[in-house]
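Whiteboard transcription, Tuesday session. T.W. wrote the structure tokens on the left side:
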């Protein structure tokens, strides 16, 4: 079965999308908070369960939680930059580009 891709006859004007900088901020902040809380909760639960399963003392748990927070913080920072970048492109009437997984790529000044 063949799938047809529907494309608009003309590109919508950016002013017709009603995306203000505040709306872009709210969307990016929502994605960032969702990433932080969901990944943080999953990481904390996984580390806690693993440490308790092994029967290790609480100081080891605290160290493991701190180590487990590193990828959560990295992912949150990256998602914040990517979400802001995507919202800015959408408000300008552009299409979404391919993600760049460099840590600070989206925080550099645009050339």
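and on the right, the sequence the group agreed on:
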């Amino acid at each position: 079965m063949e799938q047809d891709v529907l494309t608009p006859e003309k590109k919508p004007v950016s002013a017709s999308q009603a995306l203000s900088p505040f709306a872009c901020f709210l969307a990016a902040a929502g994605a960032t908070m969702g990433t932080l809380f969901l990944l943080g909760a999953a990481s904390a639960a996984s580390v806690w369960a693993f440490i308790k399963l092994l029967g290790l003392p609480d100081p080891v748990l605290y160290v493991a939680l701190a180590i487990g927070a590193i990828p959560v913080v990295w992912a949150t920072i990256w998602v914040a930059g990517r979400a802001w970048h995507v919202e800015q492109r959408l408000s300008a009437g552009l299409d979404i580009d391919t993600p760049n997984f460099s840590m600070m790529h989206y925080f550099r000044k645009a050339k």
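Someone added at the bottom: The chain has a mean pLDDT of 87.
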